[in-house]
Each structure stands twice: as structure tokens, then as C-alpha cells.
């Protein structure tokens, strides 16, 4: 290897050397690259060594800085010495002088500094926690909000700023709270059971208070009937004992008076009626007031249950409470039928009644006339017959009436039961008529036996007379004597007195009995009235309670309905809410599921695609391998061919007989190789004259001779004398064969001169080291250089050509190496 | 080896220069001699000094000419060839590199 043993002393030498090195650098890449690198590195290293050893910056700067462009591309190898070449003149930047003199603060501000630092630290900590909470937006934040009181407001404020900016939203699914929406308003609106009970009891009390003052109208009727019975009883009692006409009459009068007194004792019907209506009105008022109080007591519900729906305004009172005691509607057809039947019966009945009444009246009047006629006698058969007939008539008619009346009564009872108390209007008339008839009939039956009484009375009188005055019995009234008459008169007077006494006694008895009876009856009546009243009261109370119950039930029903309705609404709202939440949840889960599904599917997809791709790649690779194999075989063949041809060319180049044909053949062989193309172009365009080594050698000897002859001539202005001198010198210097260069590569650049160079080159050439020879030849200076110039060029060209062809051969080798048939 | 139209190889330049130099010098010397002879014969009464002078002048001129010719590489074409060589090298390197 060629290297510089010593530095060149002279500037020019250095320049020359660097030029040479540069030139070597710029020759095409060749096996000599290593040489060049070594030449570069070694001079460089030596340069630096010298520089560092000597520490003479002048030369170093001259070589290093003056020619940076040369040194820069040269340094291919990493030279550890080179690193030290970094000029130490650069002062490294001050390291870490940036620490501020914090600790060097004055001692006076130490305390204040402490406080400041503490404050900063605390604010920093708070800000950090807030920021983290805001960022995390999860359990940490919740915890913070729960522990520190006003942090939620602060964080909420931050949220308002941050959410629009960063587009952050609260998580989609909130936890479904366990709190069920409030149903309390509905519950509040329902009046409690106690309240309802209270109200009901209030109503009951008022109605009871009213009812206590209410007399019954039917009791009046009952009382009247009982009075009638009493009257009839007394009448019967009276008739048993009354034999005489006047007595009977008086008795009847007395009875009548008694009856009247009884009737007066009874309460007044009109007043009763008035009282009844008044009481009824009172009850109604009380009921109304009760209703009002109930209504007011119940609160109104108004739209607290979420959206107020239009359907329901007042859930408690959909409508007015029903009227109290509205009777259930009568089944109309039955009612109509009954009414028709009753009407049907009424006409004949009334007629019958009228007939009976007239008959009875006739009879009574007849009898009355008979009774009042003192001159009636038992022998008047006509009148008696008439009376009997009349009585018969009356009786029959009365029986008829009773029959029809019974029927009527039955029908009426049915009617009243169906109409629940409604009284047929005809009933009153019928009743009146019947009463009158009854009265008349009783009198008629009573007076029916008048004749028999009279007969009996006369018979008894006669018998009495006969017993007492038997003597007088058989006498006619005209035969009676004065004594007889007196006796009779006395008897009669006695009898009369007795009778009068009897009458008086009887009267007293009768009055007593009547009084007693009246008392009894009154008591009875009272008892009855009370009973009836109680019954009625009970019934009305029952009715009222029933009505109240029904009303209450109705109300309750309504309340329940309202409550149900409201609950249904709430339930709907709840279910809707739940459904919403569920649907949202479901949607979110579905979305997540779909996302996961997509992920999985894409993963699988990618997997499959990867597999497919790998297999396809393998397939392609196999195909390519096959093709490459074919290609390589092809190329191998070509390469062989090329190699042959390259060898051919090389030989020709060496021997100097290339022709265009050869080059064209190459281009035909491998039309596609770029490298070969380049080389081929180069070879083709090479205009240098065709030489070969022999020629060059010959020329070299010639050149050498000449160079020796002009060795002293340098670049300056030389005269002919110098030429002569150099020629003389050449004659004197003995040619020295120097093969040392072959052993030791070191060239002392300071001791180079023409003769040594020529010697070296000669030895190189003799050993076929053309490159070294060329390098050395280029070191010639002055006139020898000019003389050798064309030789140098030609040698260079020749060497280049040779190199190109060698490259070609090498390339063909490289191609062909892998494709040689695998034979042993 | 060398075609007549080709530019000379550098080693032959030297020989050719010498040839030229010699011939030129000889020519000049001869012509100087001749002129000297003529002058001496004509003007200077056959004194020998114009001959010598002429010869000397001729020789000197030839010498100077020769010298000048030998110095000429540093004046013209040779540097150009250097440059050409440089270019050649450069193009070669660019082609192959």
C-alpha cells in the first residue's frame, strides 16, 4: 500500500499530493479503493498526529482549514484521532448556569417567602384536585362533592364552561333511582276512611234529629181506624144493654159524642199533615246541608299528578252526588199493568160502593124513621118487610163490596209494594167511601134488629106485667081500674126509676168504661203510635242509613274510581318512564353489542385476510422463485455468454484489438442489464486511442529516457542551459534499479524526484502494477510531467478501459456464479 | 502508432521541439552567417566581425527562440490538455460512478 512516510515540506508538494489523492479519489471504484482509503486515512492520521504532537496550529490550519473541501470527502474511515481534532478553541456552552439564585435570597424575606410558598402550594393542590375531579368526572368527583360542601357548585360552574368547549356529556344511562315518583298527592286527596265515617255519622245524626220530630202520617190513619174500632166496640157494648128507643138513641148520641171526643183526642190530621211536610222539608234540608258539608270536607284535587289531563278536572267529584233516597225505578211494565188493573177495578168498585152506600143509607134512614116514629108497631109488616128487604139489599151489596174491596186491597198492596210506598190516588177515595159504607152498614145491621128488639121488649114487658100483676094481664087497657093503673103507674114509675137509675148507673159505667176504653185505646193508640213511629223512624232511619250507605258507597266508588284512574295514569307514566329508560338502556346495550360484534367481526375478517394474504404471498413467492429460477438459469446462460465475451474483450483490450463487433455482441446478449449498459456505453464512447500494454511499456521506456533528460527543468523560466545541464546530469546519474518500493510502500514525499519516481515506476511496471505506476507517474513535476503527460493519459484510459471490461467480467461472474449448473 | 492527424503525444513533443529548435537555430545561424558574410563582404570590407556577428545573432536568435519554445508549455496549450485531462477524468468518473 502506498502511503506517505513523511509530510511534504513544501506547500506545493502538499498541494500536489492532495491533488493526487483527490484524483485517486475520483477514479471509478476499483479494487484500488482500499488503497485510496488507506492513503487517505494514513496521511490524515499522520497529519493530525503531527499536528497534535507539534501543536503547531499553522500547518494544521493550513491543511485542515485551508482545504476543508478536500479533507471532508476524504475522511471515510472513523479515525479516533480525528475526534480530537475538534478544535478546542470552541468554548463549550456554560453548563447549567441557569439555576436561579433562589437560595440566595435575602434573609429578611425568608418568612414571607415561606408564607408565599405555602399559599402557592395550597392553591396548587386545590387547583390540581379540582382539575382532576373535573377531568375524571367519576367516583373521585362524586366523593369530592360529597365531602366538601361547595365543591359541587364550583365543579358545576366548571362543567358549564368545559362541556361546551370539549363537548363532554354526562353518561348516557343514569342510574335508575330507587325513588318512585311521588303518589302522595293522590293519597292526600282521598278523604280518609275516618273522615268519611265521621261525615256519615254527622249525616246520620242530623237525620235522626230530624226524624225524632217527625210524626207519621200513616199513624194517623191507623189511629183513625183504631178509633173506629173502639167506637164500634163501644157501640156494640151499648147495643147489648139498650132496650129502649130513647135510651138507644141517647146511647148512640153518647157514643157519637165519645167518638168525637176520641177523634179530638187524636192529633189533628191537617196539622199532622203540615207537620209532616215540614218535617220532610227539614229532613231534606238537613240532608242537603250534610251533603254540602261532605262536599266541602273533601278536598279538590287539581293537576299535581304530573301533566293535568283534560279528561279529569276534579278527580273526587265527577258529578254531583245523587239525590238522597231516590227510589229505584219501578219496572214500568208491571207498574203500568197494575195501574191498569187497579183502574179497571176502581170503576165497578166505586159503583158498588155507591150502591152499597145508598142501600145502607136507605135502610138506615128507613129505620131511623121507624125508630123516630113512636107510633110504629110491630104489626106494620110492610114497613118491616121493607126494612128487611132494604137491609137484605144493603147486606148483599155490602158483601159484594167487601169482596171487591178485598180484591182491590190485594191489588193495592201489590201496587204499594212495587211502588215502594206510593199510594194509588184512588185508594183514598175508595177508603173514604168504604168507611162511610162501613159506618152505614154497621148502623144498618145495628138497626136491623130494631124490630126484634121492639118485639122482645114488648114481650118482656108483657111478661113482667103478667108476673107482677097477673091480674092485670088479661085485661084490656080499657078494663084497667084505677088501682090497677096506679099499681101500673107505680110499677112503671118504679120501673122507670129503676131504669133511670140503671141508666144513670149505666151511664156512669158507660162513661167510666168509655173512659177506660178510651184510656186503654189511647194507651193502645199511644203505644201503637209510638210503635208505628218507632217503626217508621227505624224504617226511615234504616232507609236513610241505607241511602247514606249507598251514597257513601257511591262516593267511595267514585273516590275509588278516581283513585284508580289516577293510579292508572301514574302507572302509565311510570311504565312509560321505565319503558323509556329500558328502551334507552336496551338501545345502548344493543349499540354496544353491535359495536363489539363489529369489532369481533372485523378482527376475524382481518385475521382471515391476513391468512389469505400470507398464503397468497407464499404462492406468489413460490411462483416468483420458480420464475427466478428460470430467470436465473437464463441469466446464468447469459452470464456465461457475457463472461466469455467479456474475457474476449478484456483480452482484446489488453492486447489492443477491440472492435465494435464485440461490444455490439454484448449489447445483444444482455439487453436489459443497466450496469452492463453503462459499462458498455462507457466502452463504446471511449475515444482514447487503442493501446495495449506493450505499447505502453515501450512508450514508457521512451518517456523515461526523456524524463531523465529533462529532470532538472521545472515550472519556472528555464533556459537552454538548464536543458543542457539536465541532459548532462542524466548522463551522469546511473540508472538504479530500485525494487524496494515493492516491499515497503512508504514514500518519502520529501525525497521524491524524477529519478526515484522513474525507478519506482519502472519496478512497478516490471511487476505489472500499473495503478501504482500511474500514481507515481503523476507525482512528476515540471517538464518531465509534461513529457509524461500523454503517456499518463493513455495509461489512464487504458487502465479505465481495462477496468471497465474487468467490471464487466466480474459482473458476468457475479451473475453467473449462482447459476452455474450444479455439477461437481 | 500515431496517425498524422492526431495530436502529438507529449513525449514526442520534446523531440519535436528539439528538432524544431535545432533546425531553427541552424537556419538562423546559417542565415546570420550568410548575412554576415554578405554584410562583411558588402559593407564592412570583408572583416570577419559581421560574419561572427551575424552568426552570433543567428545563433542567439535561434537560442532564444528555442528557449522560448521550450518554455511554451507554461504559456499555452499544454495546460489546456491538463484541463482536458481533468475534464476527461471528471466525466469518466461521473459516468462510471
TrEMBL record, chain A:
Question: Where is this chain compositionally biased, Polar residues type?
Answer: 26-68
Claim: DNA damage is one of the keywords in the record: no
* Membrane association type: Single-pass membrane protein
Q: Which Gene3D superfamilies match?
A: Apolipoprotein
For the region Disordered, give the residue spans.
Answer: 26-110
Q: Which GO terms describe its biological process?
A: cristae formation
Any coiled-coil ranges, and where? 534-599
Query: Where does the protein end up?
Result: Mitochondrion inner membrane
Query: What is the protein's major site of localization?
Result: mitochondrion
A GO CC annotation recorded here is:
MICOS complex
Q: Low complexity compositional bias: what residue ranges? A: 77-88
**Mind listing the UniProt keywords for this protein, alphabetically?**
Coiled coil, Membrane, Mitochondrion, Mitochondrion inner membrane, Transmembrane, Transmembrane helix
Matching InterPro entries? MIC60
Physiological role:
Component of the MICOS complex, a large protein complex of the mitochondrial inner membrane that plays crucial roles in the maintenance of crista junctions, inner membrane architecture, and formation of contact sites to the outer membrane.
Q: Which PANTHER family match?
A: MICOS COMPLEX SUBUNIT MIC60, MITOFILIN
UniProt lists the family membership as follows: Belongs to the MICOS complex subunit Mic60 family.
State whether it acts alone or in a complex, and with which partners, per the record.
Answer: Component of the mitochondrial contact site and cristae organizing system (MICOS) complex.
Supply the name of the protein: MICOS complex subunit MIC60
Question: Per the UniProt entry, what species is this protein from, by scientific name?
Answer: Adineta steineri
TrEMBL record, chain B:
- Report the principal subcellular site: mitochondrion
Transmembrane region positions?
26-44
Key word Transmembrane helix present: yes
Which Pfam families does the record match to this protein? DUF543
Q: Name one GO cellular component term.
A: MICOS complex
Which keywords has UniProt assigned to this entry?
A: Membrane, Mitochondrion, Mitochondrion inner membrane, Transmembrane, Transmembrane helix
Bilayer disposition of the protein:
Single-pass membrane protein
Q: Where would you find this protein in the cell?
A: Mitochondrion inner membrane
The reply on keyword Mitochondrion is: yes
Subunit field text: Component of the mitochondrial contact site and cristae organizing system (MICOS) complex.
This molecule's function is given as: Component of the MICOS complex, a large protein complex of the mitochondrial inner membrane that plays crucial roles in the maintenance of crista junctions, inner membrane architecture, and formation of contact sites to the outer membrane.
Record-stated family: Belongs to the MICOS complex subunit Mic10 family.
User: What name has this protein been given in UniProt?
Assistant: MICOS complex subunit MIC10
